[in-house]
């Protein structure tokens, strides 16, 4: 490195010396003579005054005579010697200049076009400091090359003669072709803009516009171009300064590799007056661009710009003057390369670029050479697409902790999410990255990431996958609660270890399990669709996670078609302000800043990636490859599954479109005899795979009521409760009394009773009449074993229960109320189904609601449930396949559950 720096220093020194010598040579004919004559006149006057004594006003003849005086011989010889030495030294400058140009500007930078035209460049890191534009002469030793600096060293400002457009285009085309034929393929980006022309801006280079090498801008897109260049400068400066450098060249020299392309921005101004704001922006760009590897070539922009500019003034179609050669030397411009040859060379270069890049980039190009080699302690970084052939990265960390993704239906939002998830999962192992994925759309966008019947593989990084949850907003709330709990856990650990962020926690607790968590919520606006408790709780949790999550490595990715209608966030911009990473799909609205219209012009299969809260200068346009079609993502998933599956559990899959099966639930599998029996009722809508259950202890009120007319759901809850209880009792240690008072349910109830009997349990089937007769016995005689009453359609039996037998003071209903009140203490528990809340009230009588300690409501409005929920207001609108569950002993407020699907019903 030291040797390279010394060599560079020598080149720069030689270049400075060359400029100095060249200036001396170019003015030799006039300046030398003027100096000699001035000195001679001074001496003549001096000698005349001192020695000869003639008057100051003496004429030329007297001065000439004075010079010929022997007294002036020494002065005359001295002047002649100086004059001869000057011209002797100047005569060597052309040869030395030719040698210097050949040394510092080899190959296409200085050779004739026939030696390089259309050939692919190979120089990866160090562009020549000088580039040939023509030649000049100063004596009979022959022409010497005239060169100008470009790329890392200087901008060019060209002013034209009245009819100099064709000559200027030829000059710029020659320069650009020299650069493209010197530097490595794809390492130079050219941006073309003309204030007056829609097309035909350097038209011979148009074949390169099908690659990343040339980008064209319409006359009204000056603002777009300046915003893009400003964004590149900001991003590159941030990158280089973070690495401890002041320029991209310094970072390139340290790393020994190219980290950003060079950019040449060509602006044809045609002498028109610019508006103040774009002119100020161009001046700012000129001052900072070179350090970011960006050079400007301006044509007829009548202003003085900041930064290092080399000036070229066109004298006519064949001649120019440059600030490097001085005003007294005319440059003979190199002959224009014929248009057909330029176009053919551009086509060959375009073909070579496409071949090198392997054609259009694919999802596989996003992936690293080796899986799972990155560390997430500081941040997550992954490419999601390509711009001009180079990868565009998404960075999730302290500076951009959360992301907001927007795009209308069909804009490629799901495909972008797959590209992002695949790129992240390929770089970071599951111990470094944990994914929680939730999709509120009516679809299965993320379902393929969980094991299925056709493909047993799953994404090892995924901990939770929720699909079809558009009607289960409670599941989104459950995810936010889980993240809030995890945030508190990590904050407590960080406080214990006296650190403030995840990187510090991982350093102080290397044996702890602290991966970065990324929670993706697609169509998240559904979570806030209602004006109810779910929205209120979700809003508060989301604000807290968004504000504090960054420090503990918990990140949110919120995706939506349109965020404008989320009433919950009116006047509460904190959530979106924390989403400094903005990704806008084509035609996305309100994701970027109000004045940033980049998404409007974005083509299909592209995304605008912005790490600066949507401000225009942060835009990066990325072409997102196909990541979601058949066998594209799944092939990566299988690789990751084979690599990590043995060490990690399969993700929890929650599919709101399918009811869970009791026998498949983890809660049912974990039931064993011993301990207080638990009646499982349905699946809890929670991050963990848990079930809603009622513990049937001897405490008062340990009975269960099902309310509503939804037959399928009522049968499911009754069935699950009976089967789960039967599994916890050894044979003959529990008695099931089954009374079905709804004819439509007789078949299902009969199947359940047969199943219980086949498991070795005693089952007593009771008719409505037998039920009434049996109540007195149940109320008076303590059971020998545990006894479970399974009553289907209790409301249908009330007329019979209300009748009193001859000679008895109490009716069957009176005895039933005693069973409900006293039965749990004696080992008798009732699980009953009432088809209306009013009939349940009639059954319980005055102040009898405490005897039903748990209930599940089906198609019952929330207003009817208040007295069964300790008087609190119940927000519940019935929906198919769901029930509202409340247990006085465990719940503060009711929760939504999903009744299990009976296997018989499935068949």
UniProtKB/TrEMBL annotation:
Keyword field: ATP-binding, Nucleotide-binding
FtsK domain segment(s): 389-594
Top-level taxon: Bacteria
InterPro entries: FtsK/SpoIIIE/SftA (IPR050206), FtsK_dom (IPR002543), P-loop_NTPase (IPR027417)
UniProt-annotated binding residues for ATP: 407-414
Pfam family, one: FtsK_SpoIIIE
Keyword ATP-binding on entry: yes
Gene3D superfamilies associated with the record: P-loop containing nucleotide triphosphate hydrolases (3.40.50.300)
Classification via PROSITE patterns: FTSK
Database matches in PANTHER family: DNA TRANSLOCASE FTSK (PTHR22683:SF41), SPORULATION PROTEIN RELATED (PTHR22683)
Protein name: FtsK/SpoIIIE domain-containing protein
Source organism: Amycolatopsis tucumanensis
Source lineage: Bacteria, Bacillati, Actinomycetota, Actinomycetes, Pseudonocardiales
């Amino acid at each position: 490195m030291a040797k390279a720096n010394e060599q560079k220093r020598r080149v720069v020194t030689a270049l400075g010396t060359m400029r100095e010598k060249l200036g001396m040579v170019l003015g030799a004919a006039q300046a030398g003579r003027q100096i000699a004559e001035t000195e001679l006149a001074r001496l003549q006057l001096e000698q005349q005054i001192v020695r000869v004594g003639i008057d100051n006003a003496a004429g030329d003849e007297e001065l000439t005579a004075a010079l010929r005086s022997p007294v002036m011989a020494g002065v005359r010889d001295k002047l002649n010697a100086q004059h001869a030495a000057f011209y002797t030294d100047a005569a060597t400058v052309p040869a030395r200049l030719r040698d210097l140009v050949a040394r510092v500007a080899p190959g296409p930078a200085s050779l004739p076009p026939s030696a390089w035209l259309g050939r692919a460049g190979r120089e990866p890191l160090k562009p020549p400091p000088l580039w040939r534009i023509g030649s000049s002469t100063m004596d009979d030793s022959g022409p010497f090359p005239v060169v100008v600096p470009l790329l890392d060293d200087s901008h060019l400002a060209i002013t034209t003669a009245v009819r100099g457009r064709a000559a200027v285009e030829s000059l710029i085309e020659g320069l650009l072709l020299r650069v493209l034929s010197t530097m490595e393929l794809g390492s130079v980006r050219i941006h073309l803009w003309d204030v007056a022309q829609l097309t035909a801006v350097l038209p011979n280079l148009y074949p390169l516009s099908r690659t990343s090498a040339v980008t064209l801008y319409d006359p009204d897109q000056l603002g777009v171009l300046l915003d893009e260049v400003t964004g590149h400068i900001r991003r590159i400066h941030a990158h280089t300064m973070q690495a401890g450098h002041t320029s991209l060249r310094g970072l390139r020299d340290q790393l020994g590799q190219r980290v950003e392309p060079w950019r040449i921005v060509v602006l044809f101004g045609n002498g028109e007056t610019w508006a103040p704001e774009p002119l100020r922006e161009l001046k700012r760009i000129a001052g900072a661009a070179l350090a970011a590897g960006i050079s400007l070539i301006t044509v007829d922009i009548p202003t003085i710009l900041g930064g290092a500019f080399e000036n070229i003034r066109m004298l006519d179609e064949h001649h120019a003057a440059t600030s490097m050669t001085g005003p007294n030397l005319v440059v003979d411009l190199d002959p224009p390369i014929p248009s057909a040859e330029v176009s053919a060379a551009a086509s060959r270069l375009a073909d070579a670029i496409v071949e090198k890049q392997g054609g259009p980039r694919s999802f596989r190009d996003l992936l690293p050479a080796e899986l799972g080699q990155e560390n997430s302690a500081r941040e997550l970084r992954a490419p999601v697409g390509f711009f001009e052939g180079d990868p565009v990265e998404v960075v999730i960390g302290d500076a951009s902790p959360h992301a907001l993704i927007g795009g209308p239906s069909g804009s490629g939002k799901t495909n972008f999410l797959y590209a992002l998830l695949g790129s992240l999962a390929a770089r970071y192992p599951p111990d470094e990255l944990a994914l929680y994925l939730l999709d509120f759309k009516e679809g299965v966008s993320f379902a393929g990431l969980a094991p299925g019947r056709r493909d047993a593989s799953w994404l090892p990084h995924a901990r939770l996958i929720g699909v079809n949850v558009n009607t289960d907003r409670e599941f989104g709330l459950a995810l936010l609660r889980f993240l809030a709990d995890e945030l508190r856990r990590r904050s407590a650990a960080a406080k214990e270890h006296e650190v403030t962020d995840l990187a510090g926690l991982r350093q102080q607790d290397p044996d702890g399990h602290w991966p970065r968590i990324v929670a993706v919520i697609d169509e998240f606006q559904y979570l806030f669709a209602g004006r109810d408790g779910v929205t209120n709780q979700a809003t508060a949790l989301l604000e807290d996670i968004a504000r504090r999550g960054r420090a503990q490595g918990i990140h949110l990715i919120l995706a939506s078609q349109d965020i404008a209608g989320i009433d919950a966030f009116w006047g509460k911009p904190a959530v979106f302000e924390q989403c400094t990473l903005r990704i806008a799909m084509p035609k996305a609205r309100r994701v970027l800043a109000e004045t940033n219209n980049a998404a409007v012009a974005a083509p299909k299969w592209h995304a605008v990636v912005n790490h600066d809260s949507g401000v225009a200068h942060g835009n990066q346009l990325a072409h997102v490859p196909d990541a979601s079609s058949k066998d594209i993502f799944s092939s990566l998933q299988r690789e990751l599954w084979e690599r990590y599956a043995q060490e990690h559990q399969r993700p929890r899959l929650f599919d709101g479109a399918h009811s869970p099966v009791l026998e498949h639930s983890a809660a049912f599998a974990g039931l064993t005899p011993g301990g207080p029996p638990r009646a499982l009722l349905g699946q809890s809508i929670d991050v963990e795979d848990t079930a809603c259950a009622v513990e049937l202890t001897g405490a008062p009120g340990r009975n269960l009521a099902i309310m509503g007319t939804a037959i399928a759901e009522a049968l499911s809850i009754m069935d699950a409760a009976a089967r789960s209880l039967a599994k916890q009792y050894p044979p003959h240690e529990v008695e099931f009394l089954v009374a079905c008072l709804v004819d439509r349910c007789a078949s299902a109830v009969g199947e359940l009773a047969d199943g219980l009997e086949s498991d070795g349990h005693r089952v007593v089937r009771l008719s409505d009449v037998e039920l009434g007769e049996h109540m007195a016995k149940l109320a008076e005689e303590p059971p020998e074993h545990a006894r479970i009453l399974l009553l289907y359609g209790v409301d249908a039996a009330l007329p019979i229960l209300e009748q009193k037998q001859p000679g008895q003071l109490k009716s069957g209903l009176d005895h039933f109320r005693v069973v409900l009140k006293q039965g749990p203490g004696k080992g008798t528990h009732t699980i009953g189904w009432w088809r209306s809340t009013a009939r349940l009230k009639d059954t319980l009588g005055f102040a009898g609601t405490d005897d039903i300690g748990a209930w599940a409501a089906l198609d019952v409005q929330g207003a009817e449930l208040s007295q069964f929920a300790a008087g609190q207001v119940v927000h519940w609108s019935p929906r198919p396949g769901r029930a509202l569950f409340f247990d006085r002993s465990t719940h503060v407020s009711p929760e939504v559950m999903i009744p299990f699907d009976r296997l018989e019903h499935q068949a």
